[in-house]
Amino acid sequence: MANDPDFIDYVCDQIDGECEMSYRHMFGGTTLYSKGKVVALICDNQLFVKPTGAGRDYIGDVTEAPAYEGSKDFFLIGDEIDDADWLTDLIRRTEKSLPPPKPRRKK
């Protein structure tokens, strides 16, 4: 599930700065955050966006696939990665439809 750092940077650079993108490497993949909310995963140099009703309405004909063995289905994004406006809009809609992150428990 290793990801090419250049691919991760490319995907994040495609998304407008107002989405406040960040990422963390976890379990062999990469988790993408927008404004602190998990919005997508990158696994095997493929972008998987968290499924939401807003995202489904925006994409239309959705391709769904598990990001890794045993995961739930995510929206698999193909060539649309190259369309910065489209991808930014999808991430923005996804982030807005997700609940705020739960506060971390203090140890």
Report on the structure:
- The protein contains 3 helices and 6 strands, in the order αββββαββα.
- It starts with a helix and ends in a 10-residue tail after the last helix.
- The radius of gyration is 13 Å and the shape is globular.
- The relative contact order is 0.21.
- It has 107 residues and is an alpha+beta fold.
- The mean pLDDT is 93.
- A hairpin with a 2-residue loop joins β3 (37-43) and β4.
- Helices cover 29% and strands 29% of the residues.
- A 6-stranded antiparallel beta sheet has the order 1-2-3-4-6-5.
- It has a single domain, classed as 2-Layer Sandwich (Yope Regulator, Chain: A).
- The chain has helices spanning 5-14, 53-59, 84-97, and strands at residues 21-26, 29-34, 37-43, 46-49, 64-66, 73-77.
Summed up:
With 107 residues, the protein is α+β, with helices and mostly antiparallel strands. Helix content is 29%, strand content 29%. The protein is built from 3 helices and 6 strands.
CATH architecture: 2-Layer Sandwich
Average pLDDT rating: 93
Largest sheet: 6 strands, antiparallel
Cα gyration radius (Å): 13 Å
Might you state the CATH topology name?
Yope Regulator, Chain: A
Strand content: 25-35%
Instruction: Say how many strands there are.
Output: 6
Shape: globular
- What is the helix/strand order? HEEEEHEEH
User: Count of helices?
Assistant: 3
Classified in CATH, the superfamily is YgaC/TfoX-N like chaperone
| Fraction of helical residues | 25-40%
What is the name of the CATH class?
Answer: Alpha Beta
Structural class assignment: alpha+beta
